[in-house]
Amino acid sequence: MTSGIHHVTALTRDVQANVDFWMGFIGLSLVKQTGGFEDAEQLHLFYGDPEGNPGSLISFLVWQKGATGRVGHGQVAEISLAIPRGRIGDWLTRAMQQRLRIEGPSREFGEPVLRLKDPDGIIVKLVGTDIPDTGWPAAPTRLRAVTIWSEVPEQTVSFLGRFGYRQDAVEGGVTRLISDTDVLDIRDASGFVPGIQGTGVIDHVALRVADVDELEEKRVALAGRNAGDVTWHDRKYFTSLYVREPGETLIEIATDGPGMAIDEAPDQLGRKLLIPPHFEDTQDLRVRLPQFARPGEERIPMRDLPFVHQLRQPDAPDGSVILLLHGTGGNETDLMPLAHRIAPNATLLGLRGRSTEEGIARFFRRNSMTTFDQDDIKSEAEAFAGFWEGAIAAYGLDPEKITVMGYSNGANFAGAVMALHPGLIRRAIMLRPMAVLDDLPQVDLAGTKMLTVTGARDPYGPYAPRLNEWLAASGANLDARVAEAGHELSQADLSIAEEWMKGE
């Protein structure tokens, strides 16, 4: 029977920092990059040995700038990688040279261990074992262990024993299970807090089976033992089922094949972004996924600015930039597909609103559907002005070539910024806008080029003329259009925006 760990999957909030650590410091190969199999708008990265063999794989779902989780019972809490015993000192020196905080060496179950954290705070242990030493530097070639925190450790141990693991030893509240290839450590976390999903948390560990026939045997056996919900999935590179052990940690059971080379040449693994076959592979989808550079490749360092943001470079940038402000409940990538269609060679800079209502993002708070928090608008506009100046300096942007495109709440915010900081925004496309300031100041917008698009059936449409009249009275070069649509965006908006951009 095949046994051992197939892979571990965690969540990261910063794809570039994640790549720099796991490829750059640890030295693993990026063997697959795909859209998520549950959500193709979520990037999924697999690291491992150069062949992408089961037992070497660590994967990350990218929740870019997503909320952090909490480690607790019912979770995998630590990842351990096997290194030659004689290389403990080399890894310690490497970490210090790269100014990474590292603890150890200490000893766990008689093995020397170095302990550090990845950029998301996930605990990573480098464990000295008797594997062959292939020289230095050399990346770890396989997983040594994972540590599971359980509120019912005896039940967790019993459950995992049916997957080729046997109990070995107990040390300091940790029960060690061993297979022919690796280890599961079960820590008694009774009385501790439960884990909460989010970035910086390990989602699940996958255990190996040889093929779908063995997987089906496991499914039948689990069903016979009333193991709870057991779900079957085709992940293209392996087939798997998911189940929760008695302590609530998510366990995946995954086949060894067909493997990572099913859709890429063995020497080209991880070079292309691939979309799962059950999703339509479109440019609109691809443009929303975050970009990253491998270690040593040219990159644009992302800066810590007042707004969470995502910068997307086209294949052939023409120097123009479209700065994107989403509508209520959106995020920094929502308008990227539309903007890319309008201007394929423009750099896209999407912002995420900072004012939240009932968990959804906005650029300012509202008191009712048509009245708005004036102080919040002013403070957020001030923050935007700081972001604008910071982004221009950090990313080398030409303010004369920046077009702001906002939709609904984002368009309203752009209008407020123009009133409160005249001259900052010089070109804008405002989709479904209305004036949100109670008092529109007298300002000089001469030289500002504006496109506003109102929906013919938009219930907010009657509020648009006040904004258009103010823009015209302030001297803006205004092109006010009406699209055959409601409040939602439509093909008409794309056509109008394309035509306006070409005319500029």
Description:
By secondary structure, the chain is α/β, with parallel strands linked by helices. The chain folds into two domains: 5-274, 2,3-Dihydroxybiphenyl 1,2-Dioxygenase, domain 1 (Roll); 306-503, Rossmann fold (3-Layer(aba) Sandwich). It is 22% helix and 31% strand. The protein has ten helices and 26 strands. It has helices at residues 15-25, 88-97, 153-160, 212-224, 283-288, 336-342, 374-395, 409-420, 464-473, 491-503, and strands at residues 5-12, 29-35, 43-48, 57-62, 75-84, 102-108, 111-117, 123-129, 143-150, 166-171, 174-178, 183-188, 202-209, 231-234, 238-244, 250-258, 273-274, 309-312, 321-325, 347-351, 355-357, 360-362, 402-407, 427-431, 449-455, 477-483. A nine-stranded mixed sheet has the order 14-15-16-13-1-4-3-2-17. An eight-stranded mixed sheet has the order 6-7-8-5-9-12-11-10, covered by helices on one side. Strands 18-20-19-23-24-25-26 form a seven-stranded mixed sheet, sandwiched between helices. Strand 15 (238-244) and strand 16 (250-258) form a beta hairpin. Helix 7 (374-395) crosses helix 8 (409-420). The longest helix has 22 residues, at 374-395.
